[in-house]
């Protein structure tokens, strides 16, 4: 299993205005740990530094100071290509993150081959179908042949999740993974992430504006304000009994957490049966496919 220690992470950018350059501290002395099967939620308003932390974790950016230390159970540091394989990101925009010219199958086969998870066409194709079934995109062979624009937003995000897992991810950085999806399908995608987390022992960083889902899908919440963590603790404590004025403001602006909590709990209970809680009728495939829309009400 894999653990991440983020220690005193700081990132400065330099903003150009005319001939002058103004320094901007986007992330300021942030520390936290990500553990297998645990989720840390990073909440904060736009510009508070959430995505910069995601980029630092996935090595898309280098820190100005501080460190991101990833290790296996026995203390071996995770470096180089193993780091790139194990630390994966799910992006906010499922429309922009998939290449419209390539099939769904290609999107999944590429990381499998690149990270040498499979060998040869037959084994790769079989694994692609298996990955699609795991994210409830069935019939998998028909989905694999499609291009991203032939899928709904929720289905595309499922492909993006499967693609992140394909190389053998152990740490998932989910940057607003459902904020661009229709409200009615968000819980299905979050429940899918929660199930995959249990099955794969994933450590998850869940970046969101949404306090209700942060509460129900995470163990610890970090509240970020202008790059600094201003409040942190167990999810229930931070969101139901906030101490910092900024967290209180965020909580006041959020929809009623008790009401949303009940909705989430119902969805999660259904998910525990092992059958995904949502299905939809796919007119292209001519069949019911998983977990994007509310199940039809009988009668
Ligand atoms: N490459 C960059 N160059 C300069 N400034 C940047 C760069 N990336 C981010 N910033 C600045 O750093 C600050 C933090 O941005 P960041 O994208 O991390 O915030 P965020 O909390 O993720 O916001 P959002 O929720 O809108 O995505 C912002 O002021 C942003 O303008």
Structural commentary:
The protein is an alpha/beta fold. The chain has a domain at 2-98 and 170-277: P-loop containing nucleotide triphosphate hydrolases (Rossmann fold, 3-Layer(aba) Sandwich), CATH 3.40.50.300. The protein has eleven helices and eleven strands. The chain has a six-stranded mixed β-sheet with strand order 5-6-7-3-8-9, sandwiched between helices. Strand 10 (279-282) and strand 11 form a beta hairpin. Helix 3 runs parallel beside helix 6 and helix 6 packs parallel to helix 7. The site of adenosine-5'-triphosphate has 12 residues, from strand 1, strand 2 and helix 1. InterPro entries: AAA+_ATPase, ABC_transp_ATP-bind, ABC_transporter-like_ATP-bd, ABC_transporter-like_CS, P-loop_NTPase. Keywords: ATP-binding, Nucleotide-binding, Transport. This is ABC transporter ATP-binding protein.
SSE layout and pairing:
Blueprint: E1 2-17, E2 20-34, E3 39-43, H1 50-57, E4 65-72, H2 80-86, E5 87-90, H3 104-114, H4 120-134, H5 140-145, H6 153-165, E6 171-175, H7 183-200, E7 203-208, H8 211-217, E8 220-225, E9 228-234, H9 235-240, H10 245-253, H11 257-271, E10 279-282, E11 287-290
Parallel strand pairs: 3-7, 3-8, 5-6, 6-7
Antiparallel strand pairs: 1-2, 1-4, 8-9, 10-11
Bound molecules: adenosine-5'-triphosphate (ATP).
Protein name: ABC transporter ATP-binding protein
Keywords: ATP-binding, Nucleotide-binding, Transport
InterPro entries: AAA+_ATPase, ABC_transp_ATP-bind, ABC_transporter-like_ATP-bd, ABC_transporter-like_CS, P-loop_NTPase
